[in-house]
Amino acid sequence: MGDGGRFPASDGVEIRPARMDDEERVRGFLAELSPHTQALRFFTGLGDPGASMVRALLAVDERRDALLAVCGDTVVGHAMSFRGGESDVEIAVVVTDDWQGHGLGSRLVRRLLRRAAAGGARTVGMDVLGGNRKVLSMIRKEWPGAVMRVSSGTVEVSTKIDPG
Asked: Whole-model pTM?
């Protein structure tokens, strides 16, 4: 996929493609997430994340993409996309508790969607827990035309990707 370069930000956070040698950094990142943040992203607590889960979060191929937000050598955010499903691409994002509320999740989403659009994706979907008010508010603000369907405690979101 295009847009493979690194873009450091003024806050010292670099958003870059995930690599397989990021396994230990991602394992540490997952372990540092609060149980609440784990539940908002994974819809359950993680316990000790296994090697197969960590590898799945790092997988990049013709159907999957993964980005990391890194501050120094520490992962502070993760975003991934998967081609397939009802939308051209399904996405999921999580930011460590200390970095939430600073726009890092939005930066990750924008970068991930630019990469997906460059690969031909025109629609995006995501599942959000109904209680995740911050993310649902961000979706309403960023994507006012998004379709939201409530289903079993989650909100299924779908919208068009703005290729800009």
From this structure: 0.88
